Amino acid sequence: MKRRIHISFVCFYSLVSYFHSCTAFYLPGLAPVSFCDESSAGEDCQSEIELFVNRLDSVESVLPYEYDVFDFCQDTKERRPSENLGQVLFGERIESSPYKFKFNEDFKCKKVCTKTYKKGARQDMAKLDFLKMGMQLNYQHHWIIDNMPVTWCYDVEDGQKYCNPGFPIGCLVTMDGRAKDACVINSEFNKKNTFYVFNHVDIKITYHSGAAEGWRGARLVAATLEPKSINTDQTNPTCEGPPMEVPVDFDNDVSILYTYSVTFSEDNSIKWASRWDYILVSMPHTNIQWFSIMNSLVIVLFLSGMVAMIMLRTLHKDIARYNQVDQVWVLSSEDAQEESGWKQVHGDVFRPPRKGMLLSVFLGQGTQIFIMTFITLFLACLGFLSPANRGALMTCAVVLWVLLGTPAGYVSARLYKTFGGEKWKTNVLLTALLCPGIVFADFFLMNLILWVEGSSAAIPFGTLVAILALWFGISVPLTFVGAYFGFKKAAIEQPVRTNQIPRQIPEQSFFTKPIPGIVMGGILPFGCIFIQLFFILNSIWSHQMYYMFGFLFLVFIILVITCSEATILLCYFHLCAEDYHWWWRSFLTSGFTAVYLFIYGVHYFFSKLQIVGAASTILYFGYTMIMVLIFFLFTGTIGFFACFWFVNKIYSVVKVD
């Protein structure tokens, strides 16, 4: 949960382009900035281009670090733009950099600073060791120009080009001569047991001129760089020479000169509204992703249609037969007894469940999560949660969760009252505190590990206080308001009366027993999300951009349908077997999808990730458990309410004496 998620700009940028041409109206944070030569700069056109640096991260570690933690060149007048809640929770730490340049002014090999490490100096040794650790674990820079990532574009297989929104600190050639990570790009990186630090960058900025279109200045449409390792003359740098080597063993003094070059080029074929496209188009396996998602959707739609058809035909025959038995006395009592099934348990089907308090609390929280997810995905699908507005997705989700305490309290209270519960104070407190408390406790423990490790992802104490204030100051009171109206309303009226004496449940077959049914119930919903899940996990842990929110919203809708149909189908089979304990089973049947999510998370960790270290492993599984709990409540709530509607519907259309 520590990575930024990016969304598709296709529809959104079209909207922005339209606003620009018609009304010059832009959504917050997305108005284009015009740049001019220094001689013609003004209020509406600036010449200074600022390069900001963000936190560094790695695919081999869950611990991101601030730029300042590494011993890089720093800005003399460091500035930090204000960060929203989502950025802080994602561990983003943006600050100004010492790389300064002005629009349309090219230069070559400009010196930034020199870092010298003296042998025997303990502080220098610690700094250099940390830098080596960053290179060994392939930590990546993330630079920003004009609110757009500076990308490193390079050729991959089949002649395609991949643009990475980050570039490495350096690389390592191991003792056996194996070039790791970025060391494969240069044949000169061949000295065994040696680090090569990328101390020079060639920055290329592409702009779209407004001269032919009637607006002043130019707009930046791409920012790329090429990192290089160069051991050049430190007095009069030319940025030519052999690679900058840093031996694994600190036997001699080490001096690293950091330099950069900047070039500008005009390209009026790229519109400002589509300037992210070159990054998104170069995403690896994009075609496979589209094909896999379409294939998954077709399979799930087919299965959903089959389930719906079977349910409608079978139920129609059942209801017609039961009503006919009531009206026409042609069947003997034995035949009627044999043919009945779910109608036989009409006097027990609405008997309140055990642990009704806990079930109602889970359902209240699940409702809150469901509404939050739906609204967030809908806004992301429309493009309102732009990646240019960093942290917007997480901020939106947190704010929505806080404001949706009222539906959580209402649903929990109404169902608890329907179950015949009377401890309303306990119900409200558990709804407001139980599941959020578990998530916060997990999050707090993970934050302690991040704090001990000195990671930038550690949430500051002030932010933790702000989160607690949002929780107890807004969410909890709103939950009480919802619970007040929930308890004030009458209990949900059931279509049939409940008998005083519980009916004995007959011996069940293997497939109608609770555990096999619950285990089978999560397979179909998981089948419709596991492909999307792979790319979502890639965006979180492997720093790949996720931008297909349109598809994700469609998968979300299909997940809701599949959870509902799978739960209804299994619930019907259990009722036909005269097992009327459906309350918890309906919740756990679809909620078991979260167990498959956890199993997939374990498989993903061991098969796809290269994470090393105990701290990173604990963090991965700690954050995975938060996702599993949220998904458990989300899917369980969908299954319960689908089954609740189904049971009420079928028992309201048959005639019961």
From TrEMBL:
<feature type="transmembrane region" description="Helical">
    <location>
        <begin position="391"/>
        <end position="416"/>
    </location>
</feature>
<feature type="transmembrane region" description="Helical">
    <location>
        <begin position="290"/>
        <end position="312"/>
    </location>
</feature>
<keyword id="KW-0472">Membrane</keyword>
<dbReference type="Pfam" id="PF02990">
    <property type="entry name" value="EMP70"/>
</dbReference>
<keyword id="KW-0812">Transmembrane</keyword>
<dbReference type="InterPro" id="IPR004240">
    <property type="entry name" value="EMP70"/>
</dbReference>
<dbReference type="GO" id="GO:0016020">
    <property type="term" value="C:membrane"/>
</dbReference>
<feature type="transmembrane region" description="Helical">
    <location>
        <begin position="518"/>
        <end position="541"/>
    </location>
</feature>
<feature type="transmembrane region" description="Helical">
    <location>
        <begin position="618"/>
        <end position="647"/>
    </location>
</feature>
<feature type="transmembrane region" description="Helical">
    <location>
        <begin position="547"/>
        <end position="575"/>
    </location>
</feature>
<feature type="signal peptide">
    <location>
        <begin position="1"/>
        <end position="24"/>
    </location>
</feature>
<dbReference type="GO" id="GO:0072657">
    <property type="term" value="P:protein localization to membrane"/>
</dbReference>
<keyword id="KW-0732">Signal</keyword>
<feature type="transmembrane region" description="Helical">
    <location>
        <begin position="361"/>
        <end position="385"/>
    </location>
</feature>
<feature type="transmembrane region" description="Helical">
    <location>
        <begin position="464"/>
        <end position="487"/>
    </location>
</feature>
<feature type="transmembrane region" description="Helical">
    <location>
        <begin position="587"/>
        <end position="606"/>
    </location>
</feature>
<comment type="similarity">
    <text>Belongs to the nonaspanin (TM9SF) (TC 9.A.2) family.</text>
</comment>
<protein>
    <recommendedName>
        <fullName>Transmembrane 9 superfamily member</fullName>
    </recommendedName>
</protein>
<keyword id="KW-1133">Transmembrane helix</keyword>
<feature type="transmembrane region" description="Helical">
    <location>
        <begin position="428"/>
        <end position="452"/>
    </location>
</feature>
